[in-house]
Amino acid sequence: MRPRIEKVDFAVDEHIWGHRLYDEQLPHLTMLEFLNVLWSNAGAPLREEPGRTVTYKPQRQIRLRSLLFNNPYVEAIRARAIPDADKWAEWEALFLEEATGRGDKDIGHLRRAFLSFDDFARAIELLRSSAFEGQSNKRWSSKFVFPFGPDALYEDLRFESDGVSNDRRFFARTGELLYLMLCRSAKGAELGDRLVERLFSASAPMNRLVRTLQGEPQRADDDRNVGYLPHASNPRFDRMCDDWLAVLSRDMPAYDALEHLIATAGLNLLLYFLECGARAVGDANPVELVCEIVSRDRSKVRALSGESFQYNESLSLRAVRASVEDIRSTPEWEAALASADPSGECAAVLRAYFQWPPAGGDEDVDAARASGEEMIRTLAAKAESRHDQHLGKVHWSWSRALGLSSRRLSRRVRYAPNDRLLKTLVVAIVDDRMQFDEFLHEAHTRYGLVMGDAEGARLVRENLVDQEALADNRGRLESRLLGLGLLRRLSDSCSFVENPFTSKGGE
Amino acid sequence: MRGAKQENNNGNSTMNDTTMASAVLPPPPSTRWVRFLRNYGPLPTNGNLFDEYVHEAVRRASVAPVVLSSPHLEEMIVVMTSAEPCSILIAGTAGDGKTFHCRSLWAALGGSPTEWSAPGKVKTLTALGGRSVVFVTDLSALLDTESDDALEGLERSVSSGDGTITYVVATNHGQILERLRGLGARRGRVSPLRKPIQDVFLQASGGVPRLRVFDLSRTAYSRSLKEVLDAVTGHPGWESCQDCTFDSGARVCPIAENRRRVVGADDGGRLVGRLGDLVEISRLNGSHLPIRDLLALAANMLLGHPDAKDGLMTCADVPKIQDAGTIELAAVYDNVFGSNLPGRRAFSGSALPVFRALSSFGIGEETTNGIDGLLVYGTDDTRLSGAFAAVVGSDPVYGATPVFKALQERYLEGEEEARLDDGAAAFMERLSGQRRRLFFTLPAAREEYPFWSLTAFRFAGDYLDLIESLAARRPVDDKTRARLAKGLNRVMTGLLLDNHDKLFVASSGGFTQSKISVLCETEVPGRRSGGIGMSIRHDALAQRPCLDVVLAPGGGAVTFGLAPVRFEFLCRVAEGALPGSFSNECLEDLLAFKARLLRQSELARLSAAACQGDEVFEEEGSLVLTFIEIEHTGHGYSKPVSVRTTP
Fold it and tell me: What is the pTM of this model?
């Protein structure tokens, strides 16, 4: 029996991917939501007790975020040639005018904490400069300070005259799902301990600074249940967990590791999205992403990577339709069709699977009187149209945010990884050094990335591309990595990919 | 330049005289040798560059072979004839001399030449008192099963170490690692040799027990270059040139002229010395130049001329070139960079690595105002004419030739044609040629015309001095140290700091990649004192200098290998000018270095906190953030901002 999902008109995507992946919750926002869940569960991180839903109580840190993002006066006042006390007074008056009154009017402690207004302004400037999307034109309550430590975490909020709500605009539960995925990976508990140790150091200077601004943490009023994830285990969850453990083992500051955690999480979530889609449409081939390493000249690989992108782009929509239509082959459906009241029985079967049509019918009541086939058509159309709004855009927007897809030098979107993503791949895959061929092989096995001729052997066999074009592509990757300081050439035929942050500390 | 040869000048031959005369002159006496040498050059079919063919060529040409010493060969013979012989792995890139070493070792151990020339890539020698040596001359030519057998034999010989059957395996780097991986996969195990051999290749370890690895691609190059050039220019084949009519009187044979310049009797071998420096810097930057390339380079330097077939002269071409008056196009200084080769063969992707490596110095394009001023206005400007006469006018063959002077004059007079698009192209081309010539000929003492400024590596001279100081255990030049520290500070902070006596380890608060980092995590002296700070030392494994920064007493050092390109990058950043063409690679390397420094500082902070128990490192209840502030002079200083953390 499928679990019931609240607050949805019907549940189709939810049973393929969970509730829910969301296109506007880009990987870094997914990470921030994840960190909120993790911090709330820091006592037993990434451990899911059987039969009990994971819950969490996110922080809100309204004082902190107001000071950072709803406080446009600091710089102007700092620049004025007036006595320090006047600066404070003037700023306070202006700030309080805009304050939400939910804890952010209480700012008397700041004068005691900072020796001068200039010091205060300098600290604000420092925190803003490292904020996520500090420069964007998002509402101020959706801007986030860099996750320096536990005090820097808070959830996305919407402030209105009549109150504050969590409108799930940018924290749409994808981070909750990420938490569950990692809980359900083989080494989840080990990872949980490592994450808490590395990322939640309350004594880290920047965290202490944030805490000074915020004071005692402000939390949401009640515990939340995390979203629904249909899979009890999945090789992709294990892959993600192993990637994170690898990143955390590298010799780099915790804050730098975050960048690679975000990118590997994004990449694995994207693959999860595609793989679940492929399974739903019955495609048994492993998901492949044919990547062009950008070259000036139009190459066959560019066309191919564009086609690969398009194929994957259409996968999820096909998956939605297929998963509705697959109901026809269930024994329940056949029994319903053979029953005395096929229409009613079919509706009941659909309801059990998809929470639709609604039992106490309102506008959908007509649907319940229709034939089974008609109902399937209606539901598939509804599901497709809902899917198109957000979930259907996940592949497009995430692959772009990850630096995996690009339109560079072309009108079509295609897979063309950028330097940052390539660097993350090296950090995640290579322990200290690895032969280039092996690296390509690993990138293919782990993430389905096709960048060289050996990995694209299938494409060559099917005459989609000649081997030379893929070999050129591989050569371009080699040069790119060389330019990024991630590769060493030994001789004409032998090069090694090197991780500059080897666990041992390297050269 | 011409030395004794000049005395033969009878002083009355003109171009017309020689044209007429060439018909009756006897043929050049060294034709055979020059033709043989030409076969070493960068020709589409350069047979002599393969050990397998050179013998036959020597016999046919009946000239003495070009003989190069091999320090490795002596060592190999010692290993094989010692009381406890062990297997040998000869690794190298194509053209490093793997086959040459195998064959020579075979002969030295008493193997017969006929058996060697017989077909078959695996040969066994059983002449050493019951011991046998298996030679595998070309791993890549073997089938998987054959190579598996051979490599398992090698593994056995290494693990048993009894020396009754030893192996000599010649291979390129990728091949042996690939074959060992394949062997492991086919046998369902991991070859015990793969990782240790890989580590030796990557200079991560010094050796493998009971297996001697000779990595021919790591031979010191400037020495090999000198040896190759000595062997070629000192070959007995040149002796008969003494009597050649094409290099006497007013006739200058460009081949003989080039040879004289390479020998460099007049200037203490400046050309070879500077070329050696270029080759050395290329090596330290990671490009590998096999012996085969150096031989090709030598032949090209002497024989290059763009009008000759395939860009390489034979003796028969010389009279034609003399008659056409295009001797100066054979300038050895242009030939070094392969300018003589047709279809820009020197610059294409398939070019020999040696030309690719040398062209990366940009010699000919890079210049300074002073040097270009001299070359353009030197004849007319009285303030420059002395220097012009000394460094350009003194060389009538490749310097101030009549053609150069005519083009220069036309350019200066601004004749109509010269004002058209590309009208000055011919002069510009000559200008490039002169810059190349000056790089190889300017005396080091002429400090107003620093020859390294004619390359993309303007600080290469300082770099080579640094290597020398480290080798001689002399203190590093203060200017160099200061420049490195200043460059590092600028990269670390993203601010135009001038500090050179200390290093700021700076963070942006968040990601290391951020453009500007104003938060000073820690600062250490620009030279090592009291166990902390920056030191510059020689890295024995990588065979080049490196920076070594220790942040806390007893803490680990963070090392940054100082390849010439990284050195150049830091120096240029310190001097405030970084051409856009500079590779992204150095910046990425430096950001990785910075991230490791920040990690080290994070660890130091954690361990300090752990040592002091609950007592926080800073004063209880307060937090000090150190900002880097910059004065208008460019001097940076740290400004602590104290924050009370308990209300």
Answer: 0.85
